[in-house]
Specification:
- Residues about 1-10 have low confidence and may be disordered.
- The protein has about 300 residues and is an all-alpha fold.
- The chain contains 13 helices and no strands.
- Helix 6 packs antiparallel against helix 9 and helix 12 (about 260-265) packs antiparallel against helix 13 (about 275-300).
- Helix content is about 70%, strand content about 0%.
- The radius of gyration is 24 Å and the shape is flat.
């Protein structure tokens, strides 16, 4: 006997994903994800952002295949060469190929973005959900701490932290993470305040579920989509903050091909050899734009009001 909800009886996998009566939690979750993807795919701006980010990821993964050098070794005989068939984006003041350094620098950019994301999302979710769910003095204490971090401009606070920790890529990532988590805590708290008295939360409480289980199984999944959208939109700010720290010599240290540091070392050549600082600036702009477009598309796709059922 064939199950009425199997792909064979309702038109394959797409029919299973579009079924009006899901038969399991897995099917319901897959349906929600598929509908979100359809909404996202229908947005050309969002798809443009996705393509840019995918190209960045592929460039970072296949950097050894896309470059002829590691972008670190100087070649003084080829200093400040303009665009050519041999050097597509020219060379810098030490003769290093700028194209190679841009490609290898994409790994540093993704490293910064990924590590900051791994740090700020758990911290923001933990503080926001606990404050919103427990309320009272716990909420007051956690939110006042959050307000302290929100009161300072992100770059200024990051500069102070890096100055205290010392220059370096890892310290810059830690400083950016410590100055970025507060908006996620606010978003998570706002989400929790709207659902903490919902029937499914009260039902879980009446069945004896612990606070940790309720937060983990019921509260955090609801808050996660909003936090992910905010994180994607914040990626541009994270990249710009990292580039600013690199520009000031507090981020990745030479000879690492970090894009902000590349702008810093080439800024004196802007009038004569303009490509040295301009090309990494364009790379920062394009990647930041890609994350902004991607985040805008995710915001529309993950909004239940914009999802057709």
């Amino acid at each position: 006997m064939t199950d009425s909800t199997s792909p064979q009886t309702i038109g394959g996998l797409r029919g299973w994903l579009m079924s009006s009566a899901p038969q399991s939690t897995l099917q319901a979750r897959c349906q929600r994800g598929y509908l979100s993807w359809l909404a996202f795919r229908a947005n050309p701006i969002a798809m443009t952002g996705l393509v840019i980010i995918l190209l960045l990821v592929l460039m970072a993964i296949f950097a050894p295949l896309l470059t002829s050098s590691n972008g670190l070794e100087p070649d003084l005989q080829n200093r400040l060469q303009p665009f050519s068939a041999e050097h597509w984006l020219g060379t810098d003041q030490l003769g290093r190929d700028i194209y190679d350094r841009i490609v290898w620098g994409s790994r540093i950019t993704l490293y910064i973005v990924g590590l900051v994301s791994v740090i700020v999302v758990p911290i923001g979710l933990a503080i926001g959900t606990i404050a919103g769910y427990l309320g009272g003095w716990v909420d007051n204490v956690l939110m006042r701490i959050t307000d302290i971090f929100l009161a300072f401009p992100r770059l200024i606070l990051a500069l102070a932290l890096v100055a205290a920790l010392g220059p370096g890529l890892e310290n810059a990532v830690l400083a950016i993470a410590l100055t970025t988590w507060s908006p996620y805590a606010r978003i998570a708290r706002a989400e929790v305040l709207t659902i903490r008295n919902a029937e499914f939360i009260l039902a879980a409480q009446s069945q004896g579920a612990s606070t940790f289980r309720i937060l983990r199984r019921h509260v955090v999944p609801i808050c996660l989509s909003s936090v992910i959208v905010r994180l994607t939109l914040d990626m541009a700010g994270i990249i710009l903050t990292a580039a600013g720290l690199g520009f000031l010599g507090l981020g990745a240290q030479p000879p690492l091909p970090e894009w902000g540091a590349m702008i810093s070392t080439g800024r004196q050549l802007l009038l004569d050899q303009w490509w040295v600082p301009t090309v990494p600036g364009i790379a920062i702009f394009v990647v930041s734009l890609g994350f902004c477009l991607l985040g805008d598309g995710l915001r529309d796709a993950l909004d239940p009001k914009n999802t057709d059922t």
